[in-house]
Amino acid sequence: MTDLKRTWAEIDLDALAHNYRTIREKAGRNVKFLGVVKADAYGHGALRISKTLARLGADYLAVSSLDEAEELRIGGVELPLLILGHTPPTQVDKLIKYGITQTVTCEAKAYEYQAEAEKLGEKLKIHIKLDTGMSRLGFLCADSHFDECIKAIARSVSLPNLDVEGIFTHFAVSDEIGDQNREYTMKQFDLFMSVISALEKQGVTFRIRHCANSGAFANYPETYLDMVRPGLLTYGYGEYAKKLGLLPVMSEKTVIGTIKVLDKDTSISYGRLFTTSGRQRVGVLPIGYADGLFRSLSNGCALQLPYGKTKILGRICMDMCMIDLGDYPQSEVGDEVEIFGKNNPVESLAEYAGTIPYEIVCAVSKRVPRVFMEDGKVIERELGLKL
């Protein structure tokens, strides 16, 4: 890959296929699979990932916004698409044109979407979202809100220009261990099922009920219901991915661009965070925080050379960073360096940066080409920059 000259991300579609099949097998034959491809498929390349999931047999895809959904439709993705976030009512014509399912999070939005769909003489497919404890989006339904929630949803689903296909919620701590987190997750799930039960008594039913995010998929099989939507698990990251035998899909790599031999007491990079204690061989890498390599990884985070581990020296710059080559006299300009991947887990970078793997993979910037691999061969290269 060194012909790419700089920095790239390898996307292993065979690993994606392995993860998909493993998740499908665990979910069971009668449970649908929703692939979460928002945020450019967590930085992996939404169009290619979506097409691969479609080919593998996924039932649904989820995005965050209309723009993300349009990209997939224009790119030829035909699977049902669910927008998890807000879409202005003025865009209902596009939702209907592209056959996109919209999340409805309160009664007022249901009426707004109804009005626009009625003007067009069409029906808009929707999923109702419940706020069972995330305190983000959704119909409030806990405690004193319960009775009014049932009435509001019943009114919403009766609107003639809305095709109400599904209902869902999102768990806040299903990926965290401990009795309190288990209790809170089950409280959310029980509330979700109570709302569904109350609506069924009024003759309101849903074709798809879903709530199993990555944490719930790994820890709470009772939450699978009609469809699961594991996000990060699909891409093979996090402690639960390892337990389930899933594989990391992305590897970010760069090359040694320059090698310098610095004298003792030479400071490196902005802020002079690192000073050599003796004569030291240093590599300059063409990757920096503009590529998504967080500045918080400066001065100590481990990277992987072909010969072993090394560390970042000093502060990460916008386009470059420096590494220690003192233990590897055989290293040369052009040698590959794995930022994260199969030999240097993204979880290690996340821990060093004080964040989560989601943020590391989503941060890989658009100027980093995605190189899609299948059967050990490059099948496509994608660059987010407009050339």
In short:
This protein is of the alpha/beta class and 387 residues long. The protein is 31% helix and 25% strand.
SS-based class? alpha/beta
C-alpha termini separation: 20 Å
What composes the largest sheet?
8 strands, parallel, barrel
Taken from the alpha-carbon principal axes, the silhouette is elongated
Low-confidence stretches: none
| Cα-based radius of gyration, to the nearest Å | 24 Å
Helix percent reads 25-40%
Q: Report the mean per-residue pLDDT as an integer.
A: 96
Q: Write out the strand line-up for the largest beta sheet, numbering strands in chain order.
A: 2-3-4-5-6-8-9-10
**Number of extended strands:** 21
Describe the structure.
The protein has 387 residues and is of the alpha/beta class. Helix content is 31%, strand content 25%. The chain has twelve helices and 21 strands. An eight-stranded parallel β-barrel has the order 2-3-4-5-6-8-9-10, surrounded by five helices. The protein has a five-stranded mixed beta sheet with strand order 19-11-1-20-21. Strand 3 (60-63), helix 4 (66-74) and strand 4 form a beta-alpha-beta unit. Helix 1 (13-27) crosses helix 3 (46-56). It is elongated and about 80 Å long. The relative contact order is 0.14. The model has no long low-confidence stretch (mean pLDDT 96).
